[in-house]
Amino acid sequence: MKFDVQYLSFFVIKVDGKEGQTDKSYKHYQTMDGYEYLDSDIKKFLDGEFTRISKRKVEKYPNTEQAPTKIGRFIVEPGHELTSNPNFNMLVRLRTVDDKEDYKNACDDLLRIYLDTSRYEVAP
């Protein structure tokens, strides 16, 4: 399998937990286009990671919630197309950007929603 990197963004996520409260913040580190990626030091590392990911076996319906890799599906109500799903629309926007700045902004939106998930909650 061949991966074609058009854009790549890096963010640093910081999670601080204080007495049952969680403060989450993030900072944009770097965004590069495909040409910058080809000339970067990170390419060699990510090429190895992409190879490992593409060889990983994935179960469609794993027996455990802790499965390392799952195939996700977008759920839509009958009579509503995928284009009515805001999560799907956000990913389509990310895939169809025209320049590096638009890609960074789309990643920023996706990251803000990701930080609102419970995965990064700090236990008291």
Blueprint (SSEs and pairs):
Blueprint: E1 7-18, E2 21-33, H1 34-38, H2 42-55, H3 86-95, H4 100-115
Antiparallel strand pairs: 1-2
Helix pairs in contact: 3-4
Summarize this structure as a short list of keywords or feature phrases.
single chain; 124 residues; alpha+beta; 4 helices; 20% strand; disordered C terminus
Spatial ordering of strands, largest sheet:
1-2
Which shape, going by the Cα principal axes?
globular
Count of beta strands: 2
Give the helices and strands as they follow along the chain: EEHHHH
Q: Taking Cα atoms only, what radius of gyration do you get, to the nearest Å?
A: 17 Å
Written account of the structure:
- Pfam families: DUF3900.
- The protein is α+β, with helices and mostly antiparallel strands and 124 residues long.
- It has one domain.
- The chain has helices spanning 34-38, 42-55, 86-95, 100-115; strands at 7-18, 21-33.
- The protein has a two-stranded antiparallel ribbon with strand order 1-2.
- Helix 3 runs antiparallel to helix 4.
- The chain is globular.
- 4% of the residues are buried.
- Residues 120-124 have low confidence and may be disordered.
Q: How do you describe this structure in short?
A:
This protein has helices at 34-38, 42-55, 86-95, 100-115; strands at residues 7-18, 21-33. Residues 120-124 have low confidence and may be disordered.
